[in-house]
Amino acid sequence: MPFDVRDFPGAPPNDRAASLQNRRLVAIWLFCVAGMILVMVVLGGVTRLTGSGLSIMEWKPFRGVLPPLNHAQWEHLFDLYKQIPQYKLMNAGFGLAGFKHIFWLEWTHRLWGRLIGLAFLLPLIWFWATGRLMRELRARLVLLFCLGGLQGLVGWFMVASGFFPDTTHVAPARLVVHLSLALVLYAAIVWTGLSVLRPMPLRPAQSAALRWLAVACCGAVALTIVAGGFVAGTHAGFTYNTFPLMDGSLVPRSYDRLSPFIRNLTQNIAAVQFDHRLLATLTVLLVTATVAAGFMRPRPDSVQGALVALGVTVAVQYGLGVATLLLVVPVRLAAAHQANAVLVLTSSLVLLHALRPAAPATV
């Protein structure tokens, strides 16, 4: 997305050039952090799919950066893992070598989270100290850094739910909270980066209706991802592995088996999977309508590119979802499905940002 002199009306040429360069650097930094968060989401999905997330029974934000350095330390961590139900009910007897396999996945996941924190904090300090950080961004970025730290605490809160008696996995609701906060951070950083890159709207000749369709797309994508989090948390993808029917019907007969009814939305595997399927289908239809509406009017290149990206990523996502279900959740395919979900969210945010109204806006 190129800069335009209209982004900085009235500024002297030298000041304008410096501001352009600073904004370019800040935007690149923010997009790199967002990319790291995308990788983090995928790593989190792989640790969940492989049952690795409960392998580290300690939460040491600073000392935990180092892995076990000798056999005694490995035995200590393995002994801690033996105390939780997952080992006793699922992995009893798989030995230290098996423990190391799941340990390294979870340790990498946690290490990557720490690296994201450093990748955010150190450039933030440098941009601020050298005067390259726009004043209107400072409070927002400090807040985002604090939310990132909170994400680490929420992650441990999620992991701790897997230590309860007769539990072999983390609580689905806590997993969804952890995932949702990660995506809120991702969306906020992407939106901020886009606003740094283009501080003034493009003033496209688009209708308010198209903007509202873009808003609806963002909402539908977010709801579908949250529903997918409950599918992951309840392991609902390992049942009803047919499409489009579930147990021989469009709506599974056991959809409302729990009482009160609201429990079905988060605890009943049949309802959880059906809701995710329904929301995904509605999202595809809504995105199709949005893309069609966008191409029926004159549009700048940025809007056209965002429309194409949104249409393509949603189509790919639906295909990945169906394939993951039919093949009973192979790890690589499920990880690709989760990664592409973030790309769908990104495309919807880019489209919404490109369709901002023409009124002047601050970053």
Task: Explain the layout of strands and helices.
Blueprint (H helix, E strand, L loop, with lengths): L12 H37 L21 H11 L3 H7 L3 H35 L5 H26 L11 H26 L10 H27 L29 H4 L1 H27 L5 H26 L4 H24 L9
Helix pairs in contact: 1-4, 1-6, 1-11, 4-5, 5-6, 6-7, 6-11, 7-9, 7-11, 9-10, 10-11
Keywords for this structure?
single chain; about 375 residues; mainly alpha; 2 domains; 11 helices; about 70% helix; about 0% strand; flat; disordered N terminus
Description:
With 363 residues, the protein is mostly helical. It has two domains: 13-199, no CATH class; 203-363, no CATH class. The protein is flat and about 65 Å long. The chain has helices at 13-49, 71-81, 85-91, 95-129, 135-160, 172-197, 208-234, 264-267, 269-295, 301-326, 331-354. Helix 1 runs antiparallel to helix 4 (95-129), helix 1 packs antiparallel against helix 6 (172-197) and helix 1 packs antiparallel against helix 11. It contains eleven helices and no strands.
The structural class is mainly alpha
Total count of strands: 0
Roughly how many Å apart are the termini? 16 Å
Mean pLDDT: 89
List the uncertain runs: 1-12
Radius of gyration: 23 Å
User: What summary fits the major beta sheet?
Assistant: none
What oligomeric state do these chains adopt?
single chain
Number of helices: 11
Question: What percentage of amino acids are in beta strands?
Answer: under 5%
Any idea what the shape is? flat
Q: What is the helical fraction, as a range of percent?
A: 55-70%
Query: How many domains would you count in the coordinates?
Result: 2
- Helix and strand pattern: HHHHHHHHHHH
